[in-house]
Amino acid sequence: MLQIDAKILMNEEIAPERYRMALSAQEIARQARPGQFIHVRVSEGYTPLLRRPFSVHRVQGQKIELLYKVMGKGTEILSKKKRGEYLDILGPLGKGYRLPSATLKGSDIILVAGGTGVASLKFLAESILLGHPELSILVLIGAKNKEQLLCERDFRRLGCRVKVATENGTRGYKGLASGLLEKCLPLSGDSPNPLVFACGPTEMLRRIGEISRRHRLPCQVSLEEHLACGIGACFGCVVKAKSSTYTYKRVCKDGPVFDAGELIWE
Amino acid sequence: MIRKAKEKSPNLAIELAGISLKNPVMVASGTFGYGEEYAELIDLNRLGAIVTKTITLKPRLGNEPPRIVETASGILNSIGLQNVGIDAFINEKLPFLREFAVPLIVSIAGETLDEYVELAKTLRGEEISGLELNLSCPNIKYDRKLMFAQDPQATHQVVSSVRKATSLPLIVKLSPNVTDIASIARTCEEAGADGISLINTFLGMAIDVESREPMLRQITGGLSGPAIKPIALRMVYEVHKVVEIPIIGVGGIMAARDALEFIIAGAKAIAIGTGNFVDPRTPIKVIDGIREYMIKNKIKDIKSMVGSLKCPKGSL
């Protein structure tokens, strides 16, 4: 974990209100694993006061990339930052996707992305293929409409199979990415037990957890939550998880990636 | 310009309730965990003191989420004192914190008077520098509805009972959610407190107008951050006029100038809370900023600034 002033190398609108930002952050780039995030101070002043968390979307040499949607004041300020400006960032933070080599071997992988949840999954796909080029990855991308579908081409370029879902049916499956997953299961082919990795809105993740449980598929989900400290000190971002009764785990430190089976969805 | 070697650098050291601090900048309870996370980002040895996240007798799960919401220049929280409990704290958290050459003040909270006493007794013999009694957490429900710090009689009882149970320096953290903070502070002094932390969070709330639901699961929570600084400052000023024991100013300190305001108003030390979330380097920046201010204004000793407010003639 480091705190640095990172130079902005690029900040471009790639779809309506969706931006891709590249930062020069050598040491964070070296340490970052898929599913981890950085915590960005978007304003020197007190509006907004807190940092904003963003998944690492891609690592390339000394560069890290973020993919974000303008949601409120923080991301709006971020979207106006120019190349050459500096951002105070903390990272890499949190526990990312777990990729035990033994489980990966011979498995098919399914990545399910809702909206900008696609951000961390691209980094994941690149990492998996780097270590296991033989694996077959199916990517399911969901968005409200076809204009908001992100990264479809990027995944195809990596050699992944891609299917898309739009809520209004303007492209692909009509409905949520979770519905598309349901439709794709069980996978035809020789891998009966694909691993599922999902990132997106909480309700979508809850459904994907449920579908995976029914099909007995190991499933990891990356949660999106409002964070204060981002490093595990304040206990503000907790999620309910199973123990003998229940416990609260920190999204920022114990997550953001959890086994779907360990969470108590409410 | 190079300063002459014989010119002494300003003295930031203070003595607080019998504890020697190398500078008056502390980190506030609940915003710094048990130091483990921040140790990766800043040099803990530079801090004046560390106040740990509040410990209770038994582990606490804390409140149901959502627990935090950002408001204008502030944060509302209802964490509910999630913590590992005193035994795990002593066994698992304290050894790490002891590795640093920084006074350690352990914040404790009980739901009853007896729990406070029990906690103080349990910590007897541990290598810590002092206790902070958290009488003012707005996020745990007490049988009596009020926080201890909202009831002068209950405050007196807790402070005097804990006083008998420990020889450690005793700091009391008070709630701003009262009519007369000065009289509660005086009560603490009479009951044997060695110092007063001013202030804990203000009760507040936020509502999602689309769903008409409260933003926090507990409906209300404690407000912190720059939004509360002027009120915290006023309370330090009021209390400084009526007590002899030292005051630790807390509330929205983000920069050295904020800290200096508290010191001028009467705080002998200050603590950074929400500022740690915004920038983990805040305490270090505040220490450096205070030193720069002192050099610039030729102030040799920080103690000379405590309570140095210049009020217009004729004002009270």
What would you note in describing this structure?
The complex is a heterodimer of chains A (266) and B (316). Chain A is α/β, with parallel strands linked by helices and 266 residues long. Chain A folds into two domains: 2-93, Elongation Factor Tu (Ef-tu), domain 3 (Beta Barrel); 101-224, 3-Layer(aba) Sandwich (Rossmann fold). Chain A has helices spanning 26-31, 73-79, 101-104, 118-131, 152-157, 177-184, 202-214; strands at 2-15, 18-24, 37-41, 52-55, 58-60, 63-69, 86-93, 109-114, 137-143, 161-166, 173-174, 195-199, 219-222, 238-242, 246-250, 257-259. In chain A, the strands form three sheets. In chain A, strands 4-3-7-1-2-6-5 form a seven-stranded antiparallel β-sheet. Chain A has a seven-stranded mixed β-sheet with strand order 11-10-9-8-12-13-16, sandwiched between helices. Chain A is globular and about 55 Å long. The model of chain A has no long low-confidence stretch (mean pLDDT 93). Chain B has a single domain (14-62, 80-203, 226-305), classed as Alpha-Beta Barrel (TIM Barrel), CATH 3.20.20. Chain B contains nine helices and 16 strands. In chain B, the strands form four sheets. Chain B has an eight-stranded parallel beta barrel with strand order 3-4-7-8-9-10-15-16, surrounded by six helices. Chain B is globular. Chains A and B meet through β14 and β15 of A and α1, β5, β6 and α8 of B.
- CATH architectural arrangement of chain B: Alpha-Beta Barrel
Structural class of chain A: alpha/beta
How many beta-strand segments of chain B? 16
CATH superfamily of chain B: Aldolase class I
First-to-last CA distance of chain B: 43 Å
Helix content of chain A: 10-25%
Distance between the termini of chain A: 32 Å
Output the radius of gyration of chain B.
19 Å
Quick one: CATH superfamily of the largest domain in chain A? Nucleotide-binding domain of ferredoxin-NADP reductase (FNR) module
Summarize model confidence as the mean pLDDT of chain B. 94
Number of distinct helices of chain A: 7
- Please describe the biggest sheet of chain A, giving its number of strands, its sense, and whether it closes into a barrel: 7 strands, antiparallel
Strand content of chain B: 15-25%
CATH class of the largest domain in chain A: Alpha Beta
- Alpha-beta content class of chain B: alpha/beta
Number of helices of chain B: 9
